Amino acid sequence: MSHVEGNPEGHISQARKRLDELDRQIVRMLKERVSFSALVQSARISDGGCRTDNQRENVVVRRYHQSLGPAGRDIALSLLRLCRGRDPVPAFGCGASPARRAFLGPAASVSQRAAELLVPRAGQELVPLGTLDDVVSEVVDGRVDEAVLPLENSLSGPVHDSIRALVACDGVCVTAQLRLPVDWVLAAAPGTHLADVDTVASHPHALAQTRKWLGALLPRTATTSTSSSSASAAGLLAPDAAYEAAVCTRRAAEHYRLSVLAAPDTTQVPVTRFALVRPAAALPEPSGDDVTSLAVTVPTRSLTDVVECLARNRAEVLGLHTFPAGKARHLLWLDCRGHAADPRLVRTWVELSEPCDQLRMIGTYPVAGLSGRPAES
């Protein structure tokens, strides 16, 4: 014990850090258990049964009691109340403080506009972050209450970083979505002319959405990627900027006091779908017009089995994206019309579990309407 007596504060600090990490792991696992419990309840209800199974709950209580003693019984009862959906994880965290909502920054990004519009809450605090992985991780670790992520664009397709981040992090789910039109502009520092532009910067999706227009406007100009469209606008303020212009929204150009050099034709405005991400909780009640998102990992040889299962159960697939997931495996992101408790969808999920290695429900939420205004309005 002499080493402890020599520096007790240091050892206490290390122990507390470890306790904090253990608490974060416990919370993540609790949220994951709530999510899986919701799927079991949906399947039971769809078969005409009750939400709860008393025999099964008694097994859980005995297991905790045998492992932890009388306190274990209390823990098990609290856990079961949480997983029944009667004590959903609060959207605002503990206490009555307004929600902290993360988004891909910096300021004036398209994601910030989506964060302002998607289920807005009085007094909410918007928290800009540098990467989409950070946006999801902050929710998982409890440092923010919720987050807004871009999922896909009508021209450039799925946002791979968002989908991979959601699939990789247990304990979160999508609870709402928004479809947001985005009007891009080409902006530069005051005094810059089109003839001065050798390189244009922006987020890869913004560059993909404006590629044809930029190619016609500046056919000999190179492009370079940044973490977000507003980051490319902010970067023009640096004296050693490696590019002369940025594709960003008009709002970002105004925020960073840039000049708008040109804007594409607005007859085909790209639309980005955003998701509101929160800690996993009990399934919401059906809205009457819902979509359920599912992520599955499947051997490449079984891809046709997945398609046949969807067709056999007449699942109305609104979106299907595939990504490589290691040797001879694929990750599939499925959006199907209907609530997760819908008997047809439950039957589909059960059958999909046969050819798939992993199956996880990402969320069930109302179908998104189209926002009436472009993102920079």
Describe the structure.
By secondary structure, the chain is α/β, with parallel strands linked by helices. Among the domains are: 2-83, Chorismate Mutase Domain, subunit A (Up-down Bundle), CATH 1.20.59; 189-268, D-Maltodextrin-Binding Protein, domain 2, CATH 3.40.190. Helix content is 38%, strand content 26%. The strands form three sheets. Strands 1, 2, 3, 4, 5 and 11 form a six-stranded mixed beta sheet that branches. Strands 8-7-9-6-10 form a five-stranded mixed beta sheet. Helix 5 (110-117) links the parallel strand 1 and strand 2. The longest helix is centred in the N-terminal third of the chain and has 39 residues, at 8-46. The chain starts with a helix and ends in an 11-residue tail after the last strand. Residues 86-96 and 372-377 have low confidence and may be disordered.
Overall average residue pLDDT: 85
Largest sheet: 6 strands, mixed
Proportion of beta-strand residues: 25-35%
The ordered string of helix (H) and strand (E) elements is: HHHHEHEHEEHEEEHHEHEHEEEHEEHE
Helix residue percentage: 25-40%
CA distance, first residue to last residue: 65 Å
Please give a quick description of this structure.
This protein has 377 residues and is of the alpha/beta class.
Write the layout of secondary structure elements.
Elements: H1 2-6, H2 8-46, H3 54-68, H4 70-83, E1 100-104, H5 110-117, E2 125-129, H6 132-140, E3 146-153, E4 157-158, H7 160-168, E5 172-181, E6 184-188, E7 199-202, H8 204-209, H9 211-217, E8 222-225, H10 229-235, E9 245-249, H11 250-255, E10 259-262, E11 271-279, E12 290-299, H12 303-312, E13 317-324, E14 329-337, H13 343-352, E15 358-366
Parallel strand pairs: 1-2, 1-3, 7-8, 7-9
Antiparallel strand pairs: 3-4, 3-11, 5-11, 6-9, 6-10, 12-14, 12-15, 13-14
Helix pairs in contact: 3-4, 6-7
